[in-house]
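It would be a great kindness if you could assist me with a short task in structural biology. The full record is reproduced below for your convenience:
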Amino acid sequence: MNPIRKLYCRTFQLCLRIALPFLPYREPKLLLNLDDAKAELNRLGYTKVLIVTDPYLSEHLLPEGILPALRDGGIEYALYDRTVSNPTVENVEEARRMYLDQHCQAIIAIGGGSSIDCAKAAGARIVKPRQPVDKMRGLLKIRRRLPDLIAVPTTAGTGSETTLAAVITDPATHHKYPINAFALIPHYAILDYHLTLGLPPQVTATTGMDALTHAVEAYIGRSTTRHTRAMAIEAVKLIRENLLPAYDNGQDIEARRNMQRAAYCAGVAFTQSYVGYAHGVAHSLGGRYGTPHGLANAVLLPMVLEAYGESCHKRLGRLSRICGIAPEGASDAEASGAFIAWIREMNRNMNIPDHLTGIRREHIPAMAQYADAESNPLYPVPKLMNARELEALYIRVAGEDLE
């Protein structure tokens, strides 16, 4: 990256860091279960809500307890269950139209990050009907209060139930982009580990590594606070102790409960301290190829940390020692290496591949441009890289499977 652009990026990040204590960050009000949610909806006088979810949960989870419980509590609902794994602009617009046509008063998002992100963006379109989704991309484009949103995560990884981000895909351009605004932070979140029991092993693995990526990128960035560092450390410790048990046994109550807490902590950490190039590259892969976000992050994280090199040794080494991954007496370089080796070991133990297939060489320049535009100057990464430098990450993540 040329010196002038580097100076601009670091100046932007410094200004944002100085402003952190004065920005309207908040955390959602935590609810224990659906009964708490019904009580809150009744208190607010709401009688009809929009449920945003995906086809699988609509068929297998909602009819068993959630939908009957709402009806029994006097809450009517409209059900939008067409959210795809990388939610599209069309998903957002369909959910928005259903909310308005059915005269709903609040939104309940049930599922992984895709359903919650779709609900966030639909809420933004409801309060800003003249602003299309693609004009909301970037930072702080939404300043109106969204309809009350209750986020109910059924995975333990994205942290979307507590973040200010929604990631949406434009299928026409194959561009996946984040929308970042304080208004997108859900008003309520239900952290009910019962909803994650029996989650398939590979979903458990990739969403768990997604949470790890959030925590690590937040911790090693240049815009941390005492609170975000503490939340990132808690997340990493919980993931280290509980992700493999949850992967091995989908009914492990303690592991599931702790992984849900880990995802929440990691979400709080990166909402204020942001992420890094693993996310910028992962989003472009998701937009172009539909690569699941958690899988992309899991594969990318060790490669990105290695690309940062010495610039992340001090902070990553400290995190490694604090979390017991490296011995107390290890140097920063040694501790950083131990942390990266641990990530790769976790991936191997959960059958996450070393590389991603299907990446085409001719797509790399455009994807690198997207990752550059998303990441710079917003993400306070240890080492700045431009689009040309980021291209090396795509080549590396493809390995011998580059087409």
